[in-house]
Each structure stands twice: as structure tokens, then as C-alpha cells.
Design a protein that fits this description.
387 residues, alpha+beta, five-stranded antiparallel sheet, 14% strand, globular
Length: 387
């Protein structure tokens, strides 16, 4: 079904001069549990004189899951990013040399028809980019390059807000995260409690369990977590190693960020914490946490200066440090809700396209890797006095 949808859309996208003699080869790609909303494909589009290597994803979700994760909004968000936001951002950085630009994948087309949502991009793997194993803790080089890219991404928000305040404000309003606890069903509340208890069951210290349980059941927790603090930006929302592709450039690395379905108006630090804690273990953070956090901010300063924006004016170091302190406790929420999906074994990954699949499919049995990562996060937060 998804392949038929893709084939039909490809014929529309490439119905233009120079593509009339095209031959399309479509192959399924498995994400190995790294993607839940879509079926993934690689495409070879052969014309009379060249082969174009493409990547596509086609929405495949049950009706229940579309509702549970607000997938309609996710797909519309991604369409907005590729069709409208990226051209604006690329115009902001048009005078920068390639080394200092935030790189977006080349975009070919987007289908916004309900139930057939499709995005077609260049196939970065064919250009030498590789994914980083989500089962491995990041190393310094991948962490460094990841936060450099994140800083450049956030810098574009600040640049837009300075050059076009009204335009930025409109986008920020449209992309605001909304959460209405009064609309939650009792089933959803019970499922959240079950996820919390599964996570807490891996902790040995009863004191830790009680402390975390009290924090997680605080009123309006989700609403607080995703709101901007001192400086709003268009946050990625799912900025983890699985959503970056890396390429070796001599003795260095470059990175391209993908998957913009969860973009929202948020806090820069939320993206930074998500990247660090969803992609590293306790040992890495003992060695590099402070260094990586500092590298993000110095990279942001550099990116802002390249865009002729004064860092002190839009996001001074004092505000950054304040955001770090205020948001750090909320890492435990991400560890409960998201980490199980990040490190789940491929064979145990939930199938959101299955008939009748609903939110309960993401309540996963803790794996050995999850226990190690989750315990490490709690150890850090307790040691740092965050919870």
C-alpha cells in the first residue's frame, strides 16, 4: 500500500521535462526500530542521462495511533518545514561559506493528502552519510558535531527573530506546543502511570523512586516541559543521534539533521538535553557533559556572530545557565517516556501501523540497556541535586 502511494506521488513530482523516460526502482528500508510513523524507501530514478538517488517516507499508522500521538499535526509540521521554513532559513544563511551553514537535506516534494503523507528527499546514504548506532553511547566527536549543528539550527531562529520580528512571532505562535490536561482520558492517565512505574521498578533505592514519582505526577508537567523559558526558538523536538547522519570529511565529521515532525516553539536547552541524555551513558557524561554543554554555547555564539546577531542581546550566557538549571529536572520525564523507544531492540519495537495499535504499544518491558541508561540518568540528576 505505502509503496503504491509513493509510486503514484513520484510520477506527479517528476512529471516535468527531462524525466519523461524515467524508470523507477523502489526498495523498502528497515529502520530497525528507529522510526514509527512511516514506511521508509530508497529510490533509484533513472532518466535518459542520469540516475537520481532518493529517500522517501510514507505515513503508515493506525487510526488510534494517529490520534494518540497527534500525527496529523506532525505531518503538517514537516510539510511546513520543508516547503516554507527551510527556504527562509537558507536565505538567512545564503552569504555564509558552506563550512558554517546549517545543512538541510535536498527536498523534492511533499504529499499532504490525509493518510498518504509522503516526503521525498535526497538519499544521504548514497552521498556517504551514515547513521550512528542508537545502542552505543555517543563518543566525543559525534557529540561535538551534533551540538555544533544544533547551535547553528537554533541560531537561525534568533536571526529570523531579529530580521523579521513579526514573521518570527507568527511562526512561533503557530508552532507553539499545546497541552490540555483536561482532555486526557483516564486510560491515557493510567498508561502514563504504568510507564512511570515500569521505569521506577529498575531503581534499587526506594527514596529515589518516591522522589521521582512525586515530581512526575506534578500538575502541568508536560505543559511546563515544552514551553520556552528565557529565549524562544524553533526547537527540533526529537534531536537525537538517530535523527542525524554523519559523514567523514578528512579527519573531521559533518552532520545533516533529518525528521522535523516535532518542530515547535521551545527552549534551546530542551533540545540540548534531549540530545545528550538520549544518546549517552553515565560514563560519557562524567567525562564530557560540562565540556559538551559549554561547546554548544560557544558554537551558538559563533553561529550568531556569523549571522550578524549579538549573542548577548538574544541569549546571554546567564540566561543559558538559568535555563540549564531550570530544565535539568525534566530530563527524568524524557527518560521515562522516550528513552524506552530510543533503545528498544528491533524485534520488540512497537508496530504503529498494525490494526488496532494504540498508545499502550509504547509501554515496553525494560531492557538491560534501558536499565543501565535510565539508572545512569537518575544517578546524574541525584548527584547534581536536580531531583
Amino acid at each position: 500500500m505505502a509503496e503504491d502511494i509513493l509510486h503514484d506521488f513520484l510520477t506527479i513530482v517528476f512529471d516535468k521535462p527531462g524525466y519523461s523516460q524515467k524508470i523507477i526502482e523502489i526498495n523498502n528500508i528497515t529502520s530497525g526500530g528507529a522510526n514509527y510513523t512511516s514506511a521508509l524507501f530508497s529510490i533509484n530514478l533513472q532518466t535518459s542521462d542520469k540516475t537520481i538517488k532518493l529517500f522517501a517516507k510514507v505515513a503508515t499508522m493506525s487510526k488510534e495511533m494517529r490520534t494518540a500521538v497527534k500525527a496529523d499535526k506532525m505531518f503538517k509540521t514537516e510539510e511546513f518545514v520543508y516547503n516554507k521554513l527551510i527556504p527562509v532559513y537558507n536565505n538567512l544563511q545564503k552569504d555564509l561559506d558552506e563550512e558554517h551553514k546549517f545543512v538541510f537535506p535536498e527536498f523534492y516534494g511533499c504529499n499532504n493528502e490525509f493518510g498518504k503523507e509522503t516526503v521525498i528527499l535526497e538519499n544521504l546514504v548514497e552521498h556517504g552519510y551514515k547513521s550512528y548506532s542508537r545502542f552505543k553511547s555517543m563518543d566525543w566527536d559525534h557529540g561535538r558535531v551534533g551540538v555544533e549543528a544544533l547551535a547553528r539550527f537554533h541560531a537561525l531562529s534568533f536571526a529570523l527573530s531579529k530580521r523579521d520580528p513579526e514573521g518570527f512571532q507568527k511562526i512561533a505562535t503557530d508552532m507553539a506546543y499545546t497541552f490540555d490536561k483536561d482532555t486526557l482520558s483516564q486510560t491515557a492517565i493510567d498508561q502514563f502511570k504504568e510507564m512511570v512505574e515500569k521505569a521506577l521498578s529498575v531503581l534499587k533505592e526506594e527514596e529515589y523512586r518516591e522522589r521521582i514519582r512525586k515530581f512526575l505526577f506534578e500538575t502541568n508537567l508536560l505543559d511546563k516541559h515544552y514551553k520556552p523559558l528565557s529565549a524562544p526558538v524553533l526547537a527540533h523536538g526529537d534531536y537525537r543521534l538517530s535523527n542525524l547522519l554523519f559523514k567523514e570529511k578528512g579527519h573531521d565529521l559533518s552532520a545533516v539533521v533529518v525528521d522535523y515532525q516535532t518542530l515547535h516553539t521551545g527552549c534551546p536547552v530542551a533540545d540540548l538535553f534531549y540530545f545528550i541524555f538520549m544518546g549517552s551513558d553515565e560514563h560519557f557524561r562524567r567525562l564530557y557533559y560540562d565540556k559538551l554543554v559549554n561547546h554548544y554555547y560557544t558554537s551558538l555564539e559563533e553561529a550568531l556572530q556569523m549571522l550578524a546577531v549579538d549573542p548577548v542581546e538574544v541569549y546571554p550566557r546567564e540566561s543559558f545557565e538559568s535555563d540549564l538549571k531550570e530544565l535539568l529536572p525534566f530530563v527524568v520525564q524524557t527518560a521515562v517516556l522516550t528513552l524506552p523507544l530510543v533503545v528498544v531492540e528491533s524485534e520488540s519495537a512497537p508496530k504503529w501501523d498494525s490494526e488496532g495499535a494504540d498508545f499502550s504499544t509504547i509501554i515496553l518491558k525494560p531492557t538491560a540497556l534501558y536499565i543501565q541508561r535510565f539508572t545512569g540518568i537518575i544517578n546524574d540528576l541525584i548527584r547534581w541535586g536536580a531531583i
